[in-house]
Structures are given as structure tokens and as C-alpha cells.
Amino acid sequence: MSFAFAIDPRQSPADFYEALHDAAKSLLQGEHDRVANAANLSALIYSQVPDLNWAGFYLFDGSELVVGPFQGLPACVRIPLGKGVCGTAALERRVLRVDDVDQFPGHIACDSASRSELVIPLFKDEQLLGVLDLDSPKAARFGEADERGITRLAELWLEAC
Ligand code: SME
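Above: inputs. Below: predicted complex with methionine sulfoxide.
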């Protein structure tokens, strides 16, 4: 299997995320280790999705979110449920797309370059497993197509778990 993915970011968002989904599917194929899959998915997202400064997982340890596999600068290790964008998405069980992190009360700034953020909560059989978090140095970087596309990648990870 080749690991040299090069998905053209100039195609339509729908085509781009379809290609990324195909790449992720082949990357996770046959592997059920959640940390290994989180590591490879973070690397795939970070290397292919333009304008990111952080992409990765926080995993739920039964009481709070703990940083897992990611790409980007070192990040805060533990996030209580209900805190920051990640903890809020996990507690409220909904995707959070934040156009301007400075306007989000309680945003946790791990990298001062971050301007916008997308967090997908990860639930399997009603159980919280963690969140998938993307940060961008561009304001309002994430649109509906990004939310849909990244949510589908998160679903691939959940299915493989
Ligand atoms: N900004 C997040 C913290 C994690 S970092 O972005 C990697 C938050 O507010 O939950």
C-alpha cells in the first residue's frame, strides 16, 4: 500500500472530501487499533487539508479528555467536559464550528496562531470516545462542506474501533 497521498485541494470541496474519504478508508482498512488509526487519520488530515495548524484527537479516559495522536504544536493535555471548544462539543454531543475562537467563551488557546476551529464529538453506542479537533490560523476556515467531510472521516474511525 502506498502512503503517498496527494489530494488536489483545488477540486470542489465535495470531490476533495470524497477523495480524502477514499484515502482514509484504505489507510484504516483492516486495522482496529484506535490509537494507530487516530495517528494515521491525524497525519492524513494534517497533510492534505489546507490551512491547518493542528489536527488530532482528544480521547475520553472516563472522566476527562486527554490529548491523543495529533499533528501540530504540543497541546494542553487534559480538557474537562464542558471546558473549551472540545469539552463543550463532547458534553453537548454536537459538532462545533467556531469562526472566531476569540469569541468563544472559555476557548483554550494551545497555539496562539489558531483563529478558527472545528470539533467533532466521537460517540459509539452512546459512549463518548473522544473528539476530533481541527484548528486553522485562518478565521472562518471551516464551512459546511468541511464539517460534512471531516464528520465522515470521524465515522470511519468510529466504525474501525
Ligand atoms: N482549542 C481547544 C483546545 C485544544 S487545541 O486547540 C489543540 C479547545 O478550546 O478546546
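The chain has four helices and six strands.
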